[in-house]
Batch of 3 targets.
Target 1
Amino acid sequence: MTKKLAAEFIGTFTLVLLGCGSAVLAGFGVIGQDGIAWAFGLAIVAMAYGIGPVSGCHINPAVSFGAWTAGRMPTGEMLGYWIAQCLGAIVGAGVLFLIASGAPDYSLADGLGQNGYGLRDAVTNQGSPGDYSLMSGAIFEVVATFIFVVVILGVTQRSAAPQFAGLAIGLTLTAIHIVGIQVTGVSVNPARSLGPAIWVGLPALMQLWLFIAAPMLGAGLAGWAFRVRLLTADEG
């Protein structure tokens, strides 16, 4: 269990540092929205093959919740994963803040790649990158997380080809980011949202609830679909 928790910590740390780091350190003016999307996707691919054999590379409380709902994970292990994932995200965002602070024109008000909804505030930089409403953000996060977790649970079932699982999961996350960055900045991962919000402070923390509730709902629906064998491949 210690190895699994260490792997989840390192994996989530890496996802936040590289994914959010692509937005903060390079951003739209250098690599653009597609570049940010690929950074998140490639981080997942790397960690899937790097720590997947140890912990399954959930690196996302919603994924762990989906696995638990599907009956693939005991409650105690899920809770341990949640703690490791959230700590990894917070430390990853903290390291990103230390790196970004080395630039003379960077301020924490510029953000750490936190998620948001509604009209973007010019002072705090909090809100949707494209000024999308709460309703739009909620629908996107539920549906995108549902799709993401369906792919994860689908490619990791016994009849699937495990050697391609990491690639399929990473490409799915890339596509989700290409579509959704302008809506919420894309969470589909409560830990990824928590890490930057902790450092940015109150404006981001006030909107954090959506990026916990919506991904958990989407993941729960995906897990349920596998638990009732709606999306489980027939074997034998």
Target 2
Amino acid sequence: MVLFGAVSSGLGQTLPGMVTISAGVHRPLFRAEADPKEIPVKSFRLDVLPVTNGDFLEFVRANPPWQRSRVKHLFADEAYLMNWTSDLDSGTNAPANVPVTQVSWFAAKAYARWKGKRLPTVAEWEYAAAASPTRPDGQNDSEFKRQVLKWYSTLGSAELAAVGSGRTNFWGVYDLHGLVWEWVADFNTAMVTGDARGDMGLDRQLFCGSGAQGAKDVGNFPAFMRYGFRSSLQANYCVPNLGFRCAKDL
């Protein structure tokens, strides 16, 4: 897990299905000597749950170009929603209450925009995901660290659990660990440690969440896995264990 500084209090529901993540500091594990040691994270809103198959079905019904048979290959590879029965039926292999997977970064971004939201940045995602169930600085919670390491070192099940099946973290967010990887907005984050929201003109080399920016701590096995996984992706990739959730500015 990445390390974080102190955060302010002030939890609470701000929009249906969203919570406010208070402002704080993200300290990247991988950085050049000239890069900043700390990245300020402004307070923002984050979905309590990952986007589900049921949620995404509403999106493709309202936006036919994103249906499986109609999506352009430029925006999603051949695995896009391949676990669904058809364009407008997720089927028994993709129940409505489990996270939608096999969606590209482009599709996730389009969904977020349709909802009036956006994808979280790596810094925002990591900041929120660093919280244990009882404290914002989960790196100081040995049981939390053990559970995260167990997930990263265990072969996943072919059948995903329903969203919200586990316990919320300090912020009131479910499933940031232990269910699926998640797309985030940033690109080139293996080399850039700043807030990338001002660089959205480029859509190449985008990366997924569950990702710290490398690791100074050579014993941080989960961070190395996240770094390696996200740096292997391209924006049109659709992966069976990769979903997303949305964020929103305050």
Target 3
Amino acid sequence: MKRCLLYAALLLSSLSLKCQLEVPAFLSTGVDELPENYGGKEELKRFLDFHLVYPENALKKKIEGKVDIQYTCNDNGEISSYKLLNTVDPEIDAEALRLFGLLLWNPAIKQRQPVKYEHFISIPFSVSRYKKTLKRKDKENANPAKLPVDTSTVIYDKVNKQPVYIHGSDSLLKYIAAELEYPQEAKSKNLEGTVVLTFIVEPNGFISNIEVKKPVAGGCNEEAVRVIGQTKWFPGKKDDRLVRCKMTYSIVFKLNSGYRDNVQGSQRMGAY
């Protein structure tokens, strides 16, 4: 009996050790906060909805799957290396890597200090979801002059021509005033303030990498990101090319300012 118990204990120990050895090193934590793309999971979902371009052949063949990318994020938020862990299709893999290259990152945190860390990200490809997002996207042309597009991942702070909301600056104010919902939590706590956002206007006119630089509690940050995240812009121009351009925008939350209650209404983009 003792021999059986000893054998069982050794077997369990062996299995436990095997499981430990099979867990990739980059999946272990050891940090207080993991590296994360600007805005986290919710921003990643919005980013993929607006920027993922399903390869035509894969779309026709209804090829779906999840591309896993292992990466090393340095303590300054820069990606120093990456590789594919799980592949789906050569064209889908290439699109996943293109999207990965557009993301900006916050480094891992350990004992309140940014540190270098190895982690992974999953980029899903779903035909049904992609077709739904096509219906949501604004079809207006953000490149009417058909200028060449800078295909690098370089982000410019200074350009020859700054990005402009596709319906004009005045219309952007009207759009925000019409679509913004004052968060119930902020109302109940009488919270007011200005949410300052930074984001990248991509050459296709949609924005990416929304980051809250100056927060306001009570759900105001999330609402500001939601509203600005649906906008489309004429992209910035540099040397007669459409380029990635960094922008800063502020959204004011002030009680008794007549914000529309959109809970029962539709959230329309490009109506102004």
